[in-house]
């Protein structure tokens, strides 16, 4: 939790962006695993954390635009709770920690909202992503759960995106802490990648590192020798000499700010020449992104520049052919990188995407492409100082996708399918850093995880 003035100032800034009415921000509740008393680790709603800072279930916040008041709704813990959980703070005391002086029992939230409805006031709320809050909004506002998201406030969504997109110094500091834990996780994975080791052993070790710092992983760890599967959460294989192991993992801090890194390295500690050739192309694309990312530059343009590096590199190996600009415009690169270059990051590892990906990554100037691959670009709009986002180009050899394109003669003017056939068992490579946009460029957050082939091999064999 930050100093209470941080939260007071954030709510004041929100008032200046929302014209009138009441802003309702629901916190999250406990979520059962398989019965009511056995719950997943509690994760507070990120927007509630941003404006109210309290990491406790069963709360809601109301920001009254016209009256200039903030109210916190929740219930004090009773003696039964205290027996199992120990002494707990009063709602009033929690409110004071974040600059909210008006606190009420949760049941009074309905009274407050009903009064606003009778007065004809606008109630701004965010699209719910959990079933319990969807049902709660139905009960509070009388809007059927099946259409509740269509009534969420676009004005509020845009206001919050504009605030949360630009990270405050205190937020960057927390992200850097998560990056330092992420560094330890990835270096450990490199050193454990010996033939005969189990993927699940390494994945478990990474999660243990995060927990040992009081953290959690910022998303389910992707760790696999089948790196061509973009989000591969299966950890069932035994490591084999010479295969590539792709590890996409990050830490989420006590404050819930996240890191997100990917490295790919050879089991046994030595790249083959074929692996090094492809790896070097991905590294060049990663470095090109860091070179180009700066305020005022659309990340869409940076994505296309990274794609051109990939096309040119693959053309040098004979896998692709033709004019690189034309290949990118036709989406030929997407056979090898069918995803976008990166996404925003902060309190969420994919920051604010619960509010709608197009609101976060696009705007009135840049709209989403419908082209395969490019349509998956989460972040495309112009960069601003204070943005934190990922830089994660990759090259993947996905047999099913290659076969589909080959049989349908897709982009055959740019792809040498005969040469490509020798790469069907290659796997995939992704290299991901976290970037902070600065005054006139960007910097990598945290100490950069070993990334050149020489650095990786040295780390693995040290």
Question: Would you kindly provide a written description of the structure presented here, covering whatever features stand out?
Answer:
By secondary structure, the chain is of the alpha+beta class. The protein has 2 domains: 4-165, Creatinase/prolidase N-terminal domain (Creatine Amidinohydrolase, Chain A, domain 1, 3-Layer(aba) Sandwich); 169-460, Creatinase/methionine aminopeptidase superfamily (Creatine Amidinohydrolase). It is 38% helix and 14% strand. It is built from 16 helices and 17 strands. The strands form 6 sheets. The protein has a 5-stranded mixed beta sheet with strand order 6-5-4-1-7. A 3-stranded antiparallel beta sheet has the order 9-10-12. It has a 3-stranded antiparallel beta sheet with strand order 13-16-17. A hairpin with a 4-residue loop joins strand 16 and strand 17. The relative contact order is 0.11.
Give a brief rundown of this model.
With 462 residues, the protein is of the alpha+beta class. The chain folds into two domains: 4-165, Creatine Amidinohydrolase, Chain A, domain 1 (3-Layer(aba) Sandwich); 169-460, Creatinase/methionine aminopeptidase superfamily (Creatine Amidinohydrolase, Alpha-Beta Complex), CATH 3.90.230. The chain is 38% helix and 14% strand.
């Amino acid at each position: 939790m930050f100093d209470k003035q941080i939260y007071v100032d954030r709510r004041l800034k929100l008032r200046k962006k929302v014209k009138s009415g009441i802003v309702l921000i629901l916190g999250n509740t406990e979520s059962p695993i398989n019965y009511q008393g056995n719950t997943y680790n509690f994760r507070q709603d990120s927007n509630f954390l941003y404006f109210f800072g309290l990491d406790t279930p069963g709360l809601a916040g109301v920001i009254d635009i016209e009256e200039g008041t903030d109210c916190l709704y929740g219930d004090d813990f009773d003696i039964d709770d205290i027996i199992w959980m120990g002494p707990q703070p009063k709602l009033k005391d929690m409110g004071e920690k974040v600059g909210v002086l008006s606190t009420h029992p949760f049941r009074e939230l309905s009274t407050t909202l009903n009064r606003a409805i009778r007065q004809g006031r606008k109630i701004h709320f965010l699209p719910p992503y959990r079933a319990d809050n969807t049902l709660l909004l139905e009960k509070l506002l009388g809007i059927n759960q099946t259409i509740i998201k269509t009534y969420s406030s676009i004005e509020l969504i845009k206001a919050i995106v504009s605030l949360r997109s630009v990270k405050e110094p205190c937020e960057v500091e927390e992200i850097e802490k998560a990056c330092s834990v992420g560094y330890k996780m990835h270096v450990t994975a490199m050193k454990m990648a010996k033939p005969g080791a189990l993927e699940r052993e390494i994945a478990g070790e990474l999660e243990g590192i995060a927990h040992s710092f009081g953290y959690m992983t910022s998303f389910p760890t992707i760790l696999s020798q089948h790196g061509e599967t973009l989000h591969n959460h299966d950890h069932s294989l035994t490591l084999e000499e010479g295969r590539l192991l792709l590890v996409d993992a990050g830490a989420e801090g006590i404050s819930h700010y996240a890191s997100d890194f990917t490295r790919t390295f050879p089991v046994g500690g030595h790249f083959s020449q074929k692996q090094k050739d492809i790896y070097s192309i991905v590294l060049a694309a990663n470095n090109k992104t860091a070179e180009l990312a700066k305020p005022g530059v659309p990340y869409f343009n940076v994505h296309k520049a990274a794609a051109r590096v990939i096309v040119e590199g693959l053309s040098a190996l004979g896998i692709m052919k033709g004019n690189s600009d034309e290949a990118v415009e036709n989406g030929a690169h997407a056979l090898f990188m069918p995803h976008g270059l990166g996404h925003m990051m902060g309190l969420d590892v994919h920051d604010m995407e619960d509010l709608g990906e197009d609101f976060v990554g696009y705007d009135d100037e840049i709209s989403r492409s419908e082209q395969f691959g490019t349509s998956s670009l989460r972040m495309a709009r112009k960069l601003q100082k204070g943005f934190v986002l990922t830089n994660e180009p990759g090259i993947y050899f996905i047999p099913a996708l290659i076969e589909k394109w080959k049989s349908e003669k897709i982009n055959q003017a740019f792809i040498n399918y005969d040469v490509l056939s020798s790469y069907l068992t290659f796997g995939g490579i992704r290299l991901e850093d976290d970037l902070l946009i600065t005054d006139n460029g960007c910097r990598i957050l945290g100490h950069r995880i070993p990334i050149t082939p020489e650095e990786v091999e040295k780390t693995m064999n040290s």
